[in-house]
Every structure is written in C-alpha cells, then in structure tokens.
Amino acid sequence: MKQTLLSLILLLASVVVYAEGTNVKGQLVSANDKQPLPYATVSVASKAVPQKSIKKFATDDSGNFTTTLQAGDYIFTFQFVGMNNFNRSVEVKNGELQVNLGQIEMSESSTELSEISVTAQRPLVKVEIDKLTYSAKDDPESSTSNVLDLLRKVPLVTVDGEDNIQLKGSSSFKIYLNGKPSNMISNNPSQVLKSMPANSIKDVEVITDPGARYDAEGVGGIINIITDKRVDEGYSGSVGANGDTFGGYGGNAYLSLKYGKFGLTGNGSYFYHNRPEAKTSLTREEMAPSPVNELTQDGTSKNYGGGLFYNTQLSYEPDTLNLFNVSVGQFGGKFHSNSSQDVLSQGARDYSYLLNNNSINHFGSFTLTTDYQRTFKKKGELLTVSYRFERNPNDSEYESEYSQVVNYFYPKGYRMKSINNAGGKEHTGQVDYVNPLTDKHSIEVGLKYIFRDNSSRGDNTFLNPDDGGQWEEDKSRKNDLDHEQRIASGYAGYGLKAGKFGLKLGLRGENTAQKIHFMSVQTVTVVHSDFFDMVPSAAFSYQLGMTKTLRWGYNMRISRPGIWYLNPYINDSDPNNIRYGNPNLDAEQTHNLNINYGSFSQKVNFNATLSYSFTQNAITPYIFVDADGVTNNTYRNIGRNQSVGLDGYASWTPTPVIRMNVNGSLSYTDIQSTENAGVRNSGFSGRGFGGITFTLPKDVRLSANGGIFTSNIQLQTTQSAFYFYSFSAMKSFFNKKLDVSLNTTTPFHKYRDFKLTTTGEGFVQKMNFQNPMRTFRLSLTYRFGDLKSSVRKVQRTITNEDVLQGGSSQEGTGTGS
Questions:
Q1: Whole-angstrom Cα distance, residue 359 to residue 50?
Q2: Which of 300, 302, 414, 609 could disulfide-link to 402, CB 3.0 to 4.6 Å?
C-alpha cells in the first residue's frame, strides 16, 4: 500500500512538472560594454522546425527574459536594433525546474546596401526607476551639433530662444558632468554647453527622483552629462572648428587613449561670441500712494567675449578590483558689454541724462577630483572614497559716465568705477558603499562633509570734479561679505527589484552650520545659524508590458542660496535699476510628487509625466521702487509656490530616413507672497520644441527645428511668448571622418522682441528687448582613431548639488537665473 501511494505521488509530481514546464531565463547584454539590452526580441523555435517560432517575447528594461518550455531541443534567436542576430541552442531535460542561460552577449553591426549605408539604431530613450537616459551617441545629429542643441531633444528638458535651460519647467536644478556637479557648468550653462561638441557625449541622464545618495538640492532634478570614454589600446578623438555671421568663432578637441592599465580622456574648447547691437526700452509708471511719475529709458547694448574650457580624467587600474581616477577641469573667460541709455523722467521728478556704460564680467571655475573604487567578488558591491576641491571666481567691473545732464544731481560727480571680487572655495570628502544583498535586494550607505568659504569685496570709486579730477574711494557704497558653511550628512537607501516591480527608498540627514559676516559702512554684523534636515525619498516602477513602464516618485529637496543670491554688492551701473543679493536668505524646501508613463520601442518613443510641487519659503526675485524713484532688484524668502505640470516627449522613426521628435510641457503655477496676500500671480505656461531629420544617400542629412515658449509665471513679472526656428544641412566625407555642417537660425527674422512686465506696490514697469537673431553658422568636425572598449571610471563620486546657483551676467544665463 505504501509503495503504491509513493508511486502515485511520484507520478503526480512528474505530471505537475510536465504540465508547468521548465523555466528558462537569461540576460541579454552588449558585448562591447556589457550594458543590458532592453526590449530586445527573443524568438523560440523547435530544433526540428527552426523556421517556425513557437514563442516570441521581449526582454525587460534590464535585458532580462524568462519563459516556460517543455522538455526538448530548442533554438533561441535574439534580435536587437544595431546588433547582429544571435542564435543559441538550448536543451531542456525532463524534470528540470530551471535553466539559467546567464549573460548572452550580442555584437554591434551595420549593414551596407548598395551605396546607402543603413545603420540600425537603438531607442534613443531608456527609462529606469528614478531616471530617463537619452542616448546621445545614437543621435544622428550629434556629430555636428553642440551639447546645448542636444538638450533641446532630451525628455523633460527645454531650452528657450535665449538659451535658458529648464527641467520640468523649473530653473532650479543641477547639471553634472560624469556624475560630478560642476559650478563651471551650473553658473554658465549655456556658454559651457555650447562650447562642448555633442560627439564627445555618450548619454544624458535626467534624474527626476534623486535618491538619498544625492544632496538634498535640485528641485527640478538633475541633468547628468556622461562623456564618451570608449577607446581600445591606442587612441581616438576629434577636432572641430566653427564660425558664424555674428563674428563668433570657436574650436574644440576631444581625445581618449588607453595604454595597459592607464587610460586618459579629455576635451577642450575655445569660444568667442560677438552679438550685434540690441535695442532696449524701459517704461516705469509710478502711481498712488507713490508720487505720480513716468520714467523712460531707450538704449542699445552690445556684448562680446569668450573663454576656454577643458576637462581631463586619468584612470589607473592596477587590477580588476581596484581603480583610481583623477580629473581636472577648468572653465574661464570674460564678457564685455557696451551700452548707452537716453533717460527721461517726468512728473514728481523731472530730469534727463545720457549714460554710457562699459562693463566686464569675469567667470570661471577650477575643479580637482580624486576617487578610489574598491570592487568586491560579489557583483555590484562597491566601496568608493572621494575628495574634491573647487574654486569659483565670479568677478565683475564697470565704468559709467553721464552727459547731457539736466536736473539730475549726483553728489559724487558724473563718472564712476566699481570692481567686485567675488567667489569661493570648496572642499568635499565622501565615502559610499553599495551592496546588492541578493538578486532582488540592495542597500547603499554613505557619509559626506563639505566646507565652503565664499567672499565678496567691492572697490567703488568716483571722479571728484572738485579735486582736480582725482579718483577717490566711495566708502558709502561698501557692502562686503564673508560666508562660511559646513555641511555634514549621511544617508541610507534600499532597493528592490522583483519581477515587474521596482522600488527605491531612502533617508538622508544633513546638518548645516554657517557663519555670515556682513560689512557695510554703517554696521558690521556676524550671524551664526545651525539647522538639521531629514530628507526622505521614494521611487516605484511597474512594467506594464514589454515596452511600457509606469513610475511614481516623491522627494523633498532643499535649496541653499549660493553667492549670487547672498552677495550684497550693489550693481548700480544703471542708477535707476540697481541689483544686489540678500545675505539674510534662508534655505528653501520643496516637496515633489510625480507619476510617469513611458513606452519605448524601436520606432516610437513616448513619455509623459504628471507632477506636483509645493514650496513654502521660496527664494523669489523681489522688486520695489524706493523713495528716490530707484527700482531695487533683490531676493527674499517670500514665495509660497504651487505648481502642477504635464511634460511630454515623443519621437517617431517611420523609416531609417526620417526621424521626428516633439518635446514640451504645460504647467499651472500659483505664487503668493507670504508677507502680502495681495501680491499674487498665477496662470498657465507652456514650452514646446520639435524637429525632423532626413538622412539621405551620399551621407547627407537635412534637419528643421523650432520651439515656442509662453509666459513664465513669477511673483511680480510676466513675459511675452517667444518662438524660434532653425535649419541645418550636413555632409560627411572621407568615410564619415569629416563632417561639414551649415546651420541657420531664424533666417526670415532679423530681430526678436522679448517683453517683461513687472507689477509692484505703486508701480508698473515694462521692458522690451529687441535682440538680433538671424545668423548662419559653419562647422567642421574631423574624427580619428578607433572606438572599441572602455576606459573605466568609478561608479560613485562626489556630487555637490545642494547649492542654489545664481545666473551669471553673461548671455544666456541658465540655472537659477
């Protein structure tokens, strides 16, 4: 009886195993860099009838696949755009519960048909739990464009006609280079990114839900630009040059080489911009309760200048477990501005004068970073120790001269100079540890310490007409600042990857101690402040189908004001419109929620994000007219902001010849003053960018692009809509080693008007900028060497994104402006 029962159990078990089949799984990766191949097609056929598929499915976003098969001999066929098809025989035996094929490597390919070179391309966009990745090296326009042009096509990123960058409709975000924040980019994003050739970029990551390992700043998220470091034993690189009809020109070079255990990558560029004369006008009406008065200013301005940028990284890999990186980067230059204004005031204050102003803005940054990475036997387990030093000068100077003066009394004469030496130094130490406990669970922990020392010193002089025309110091305009900040932080994060579900949770603690030393002619003030913040974050993802993913995210971010916002130095080059910072600003806190849906396939990519953000004590531009009739432009913690936005991105490649893309957003913003309930602004704002590219025979490519931007909602200011368009043609020579490109921007419109309207207590101010836009640009790029394998770099390094950066006074100010 027992033997019969045992036989029945064994028979039943064998039937169950046969009915359920054997689980066959594996992961598809690129043979070149071992990166996963998401959404690749997997076909299964019986070995007896190989031409007929019995199953067909796709890998997930990490290249993993799984299927259930009965006992037998099979042929698996793997297909991925841009890769050679790969076949593998698989035997499934009776009684096996699982067959693990491990990592399956596919090699890159290109197919040449007649005289038309057709190279299949991967999807340009990849979605992960907390970020989107745009594959710059797979963009056909990257060979002749710059990084700023490339950003126009990245999901959730918009670049307007003035080259201002926004992420999810916000100018509060950070830009990284290879995972490291750099003030050389953050302070001057448009200038630096325009000077970087796009063909030196591998990927652009948009980190929408920064986890606990990131500092608590970056309200809109993080844009991480990853340079291309692929090179075999030997070298590869490119050189380029460009010029435009404005009189601007530039050159760039990129080099990557590897020899044994050493690797070197670097890129550098020089740029010179020469913008033709622009026309400006300002009208300010003062009403009750202020004395009724009208001020008009009509003038012109011309800007020119340039700078040099370079970034170099050296790696040394003594063995497979240890890796050392040293990177050095610098960006510096200056811009000149010559302007004239014809000023007329009528009403309570009757006066007029002609003002000529010459100013120079110096900018720059130097960064030195060292990293050590220890890899363990367990795959994915890492220990990283990093140190970074950064120096950020941000100096300016101007000279003003008044003429044709009527009733305008200036007690210190009618000619003055001002020099501001500002900037700071920063030291950062960091330790990170990552441990994938199992295939599903992982943890990460880290510690960090930052010391910042910012300062500002002003030298103000005037030409004394009563003392034989001698330059004398104007002590009444003294506004100097020393600002020290020490930040100690630690974080812990947890990750889960279970089938179609993904999860990342994190908690970060930051303690900030700062000392502010403010020095003016009236007083000397020293302020000490200490505060502690707990910063939670969470991100979830669920794979709806083979190419569709749904994500949820929440994070709280902190924005500490940088030197641009704190600097009390008064820039009164325009005495009717003065600008200065506020050393009493506090950090702002923002809560962000978002839901994201993405569908990415070989021909159609689509992404949509619905987001909500709330800030209680936002750092807000504050404008008022004082008793002397001077418009004061500064900053205060008086904003209560709420914003709901919908961001969308779509690209379609119907044939290998045509590629189209659309990128834009629509948001509703409500801003209210926390000090005056009557000061409030709300409304819709939108941004959109689109383009089409034709890849023709004989290595010819034609492109057309355009964009439109509606008013950006601020507490006191609204702006007019703005649109632009451009066309380009490119031809490759010498087996695609030399690219020649001709670009034109707004060829049918010489100028573009840009209007700003500001409303405050007792006044309305309107400004109009008529900027020259029509330009033609010629670019040449020559590539050399062979790209195959990779120069390794550490996977974790220092990322200081906790400072709210200010806009420079250069053209095209970006983050935080």
A1: 75
A2: 414
More confident residue, 688 or 15: 688
> What is the DSSP code (8-state) at residue 230?
B
Which amino acid would we find at residue 668? Y
pLDDT tens for each residue of 113-140: 333 343 444 567 777 777 778 888 777 6
pLDDT tens digits, residue range 269-307?
A: 898 989 889 999 999 999 877 789 999 999 999 999 998
d(CA 704, CA 689): 11
Q: Where are the alpha helices (DSSP H) in 300-386?
A: none
Q: What are phi and psi of 567, to 5 degrees?
A: -60, 115
- Read off the pTM: 0.69
Closest alpha carbon to 434 in 446, 423, 425, 422: 446
DSSP 492-515: EEEEEEETTEEEEEEEEEEEEEEE
Residue in 220, 209, 225, 221 with CA at minimum distance from that of residue 148: 225
- Count of C-beta atoms within a 10 Å radius of residue 359: 20
Instruction: Delineate the domains of the chain, giving CATH numbers in brackets.
Output: 2-106 (2.60.40.10), 125-803 (2.40.170.20)
Calpha distance 278→770 (Å, rounded): 6
Mean pLDDT over residues 533-558, rounded?
85
Strands (E), 376-478: 382-393, 396-406, 415-435, 441-464, 470-473
Q: Which residues contact 580 (CB under 8 A, 6 or more apart)?
A: 479, 567, 568, 569, 570, 571, 632, 633, 634
What's the token pair of residue 596?
Answer: 């994201």
Strands (E), 465-570: 470-473, 479-498, 501-520, 524-543, 548-561
- Rounded to whole angstroms, the Cα distance separating 637 from 652 reads 44
